[in-house]
Amino acid sequence: MSNTSLGQQIRRARKESGLTQSELAKGIVTSSMICQIENGKAFPSYTVLQSLSERLGRPIEFFVSDTDAHNRQRSTYSLAKALMAAASYEKAYALLKGIQTSGGTETDDLRLTLAECCQHLGKYDEAAAQLDEMLSAAINIGEKSRALSLTVRLGHVALAAGQHQLALYHWRKAQEMMPEATLDATERVRLWLAMGSTYYKLGFVSEAIPLFEQAYAEKDAELSFEEMGRLFLSLSLSHRENGDTSQAIECAEQAFAIFKSVRNADLSLEVKRSLAALAAEQGRHEEATALLIECRNAYSRTYDAHGLGLTMVETARSLHLQGRSEEAIAEVQSAITMLAADELEQAKAHLLLSNMRRERGEIPEAVHHCNIALQAYRKHGQSEHLMEALDLSVQLYDQWETYRAKKFGRSITA
């Protein structure tokens, strides 16, 4: 980088002096050496640089100070990347902003790194602004593949910010660009996984499954074992939502084998919890209970309230399927407290509790929990889960008159 910068300075000074390369080189070096210096392929000695500066009528500091500045920037940039690798994002951010403010070189690399750092720090607007500027430049000069890559990254920033619909907007735009641009095979598979996971999170299972299957079809890309495990886990969850239990079990077992082999305890437990839910749905309650107890104990040992809460929800489902409604209700009520930091998972628990209360004829309580779920799904744009909650609310409305008649002895009208 410093050679190129010095060469650019010499070329600029030569042109401003009205000299050709041969005229500048005469008696000092060959003209081909000047060409190499200007193109950053050679670095002049101090003596040669001093002679060139005298012929160009510039002090040697004009060239050396700029080179030193670039060396400092290069060093600072390397340090910032090392800090990011160590997860010291605040310190890295300060260094990167300092380079940017001083007009550092390698602008695109700097902006990409700064955008990544901003994303880790939760500065999503700033990260998106960096990427947007680069995207506009790439589109203007016709760099289609770069524009595609930047569009995908914008989607990842939006996802990190919790803007699921915006993430899907960027990724759909990226899909439209693919016929005329190329994306690295690994990045393409990661895109399918991200899109599928986002559709699944929003409740659009039918849209998620083809994307997971596409990722699986292209799985020869250089994915990590953990990414492969997540792919099988995502397929399992999607097939389960779609009612395809056998496919769900097959994919879950694949995921569990992968996570166990790489000793990823957290994800192994996630798959184990999924396998327990599938076993319960098939009536294999002893197997489900044993798996859930293992998960529960593991999450308790690590004080993982979120994982424990999700396990308690699945335990409640299993108890409910066994007809042990009182135990199931107590379990899901405790789970709701554990899931306080995850509004969507909490909404699922409220919907489950609402249905349990409805089946017991406890209509006011059922309405209360159904309304909480409805509000959360509306807030987060969860269309399919919202429809599920609305279906339950219709059933509750139908049962309301019967409940009031029993409660008060007659039908009450407004």
From TrEMBL:
> Would I find Glycoprotein among this entry's keywords?
no
List locations, semicolon-separated.
Answer: Cytoplasm
**TPR repeat intervals:** 189-222
SUPFAM superfamilies attached to this UniProt entry? lambda repressor-like DNA-binding domains (SSF47413), TPR-like (SSF48452)
UniProt KW keywords: Cytoplasm, Repeat, TPR repeat
Q: Supply the InterPro entries for this chain.
A: Bac_ResReg_Asp_Phosphatase, Cro/C1-type_HTH, Lambda_DNA-bd_dom_sf, TPR-like_helical_dom_sf, TPR_rpt
- All copies of domain HTH cro/C1-type, residue ranges: 10-63
Q: Which Pfam families match?
A: ANAPC3, HTH_3, TPR_12
Per the record, the similarity remark reads:
Belongs to the Rap family.
Q: What's this protein's name?
A: Helix-turn-helix domain-containing protein
